[in-house]
Write a structure and sequence with these properties.
The chain is of the alpha+beta class. The chain folds into two domains: 77 residues, Roll (Ubiquitin-like (UB roll)); 78 residues, Orthogonal Bundle (DNA polymerase, domain 1). The chain is 31% helix and 21% strand. The strands form two sheets. A five-stranded mixed beta sheet has the order 2-1-5-3-4, covered by helices on one side. The chain has a two-stranded antiparallel ribbon with strand order 6-7. Bound molecules: FE2/S2 (inorganic) cluster (2 copies). The site of one FE2/S2 (inorganic) cluster has 11 residues, from loops.
Length: 164
C-alpha cells in the first residue's frame, strides 16, 4: 500500500507518497536527494544512516518512512545554518575527525543528540553515546576530541563559514 505522508525535514515541510515497505533512508536518499545520510550495512549495525526523528537519534535503515508521518526529521544537511557549520561540524574539521567521511554524518547526528541532552559530557559519556557508530578510519580518538571540543564551544551554534 502506498500512503501520502507529510513530515518536516530539516525544518521544511515535505509531502510525498511512499509505499509502506520503504525505509526512511530510501526516501531521504532516493526521493529527496538528501545523500548526506550514508547507507552502509542496511542492517542497523553501523550507524552511518543515523538521523534525528523528533530529536531522537534513529537508524534510518530500520525506520519505515510511514512511521515518520507528522514528525520532524533532521539529517546532516540540517545541522549547518546555510553555509555556516555548527560548532560540532567545525570541531570535526579542526580535530581531523573526518577521513573517508562515510561514518561522519551518523557520528555528527549521534553526537548532536548527545550534546542536546547532555551539553557537557565526559569522555566516557561521549564514547558511550557513539558506541553504535562504527568508523574504520579514525581510531575514534579525533571524533571523541571533536565532540568534547564542541561541548566546550557550545555545540549547535553556527561558528564558521564553510571554506573560511
Ligand atoms: S546503514 Fe543503517 S545502521 Fe548501517
Ligand atoms: S572516517 Fe572513514 S569510516 Fe569514519
Amino acid at each position: 500500500m502506498t500512503r501520502h505522508l507529510s513530515m518536516s525535514i530539516n525544518g521544511e515541510p515535505h509531502e510525498f507518497d511512499a509505499a509502506d515497505h520503504r525505509t526512511l533512508i530510501e526516501v531521504l536518499r532516493d526521493d529527496l536527494a538528501l545523500t548526506g545520510t550514508k547507507d552502509a550495512c542496511r542492517q542497523g549495525v553501523c550507524g552511518s544512516c543515523t538521523v534525528l526523528v523528533d530529536g531522537v537519534a534513529v537508524r534510518s535503515c530500520l525506520m519505515l518512512a510511514a512511521r515518520c508521518q507528522g514528525k520532524s526529521v533532521t539529517t546532516v544537511e540540517g545541522l549547518a545554518a546555510g553555509d555556516r557549520l555548527s560548532a560540532l561540524q567545525q570541531a570535526f574539521v579542526e580535530a581531523g575527525a573526518v577521513q573517508c567521511g562515510y561514518c561522519t554524518s551518523g557520528m555528527l547526528i549521534a553526537a548532536t543528540a548527545l550534546l542536546e541532552s547532555n551539553p557537557s559530557p565526559t569522555e566516557v559519556e561521549v564514547r558511550a553515546a557513539l558506541v553504535g557508530n562504527l568508523c574504520r578510519c579514525t581510531g575514534y580518538a579525533p571524533i571523541v576530541r571533536a565532540v568534547l571540543a564542541a561541548s566546550r564551544a557550545g555545540a549547535g551554534h553556527p561558528v564558521a563559514a564553510v571554506g573560511s
